Model the fold of this input.
Amino acid sequence: MSQPAVTVRTNGLAIASLILSILGFSIVGAILGHVALSQIKRTNEAGSGLAIAGIILGWVSFAGFLLFLIIIAGISLSL
Done:
C-alpha cells in the first residue's frame, strides 16, 4: 500500500503580503511579509518565497514613492 501524500499548507499572510505589495499597499505588504516569515520559521509552512517577494516588492515600492515625493518637493520648491 502506498502512503498518503503529505500536503504542506502555504502561509496565508505570505500570500496576502505579495498581493498587497502588488496592489500598492507597500508598507502593509512588507510588514505582513516579515510576520509571515516569522510564522513560517515557527510552523514549517510553505510560502517563504512569497513572503520574501512581498517584503522586497513592498519596501522597493515604498522607497520609490519616497523618492517621488522628494523629487516633487524639490521641483515645487525651486519654482
Summary: The longest helix spans residues 48-78. The mean pLDDT is 95. Residues 12-78 form one domain.
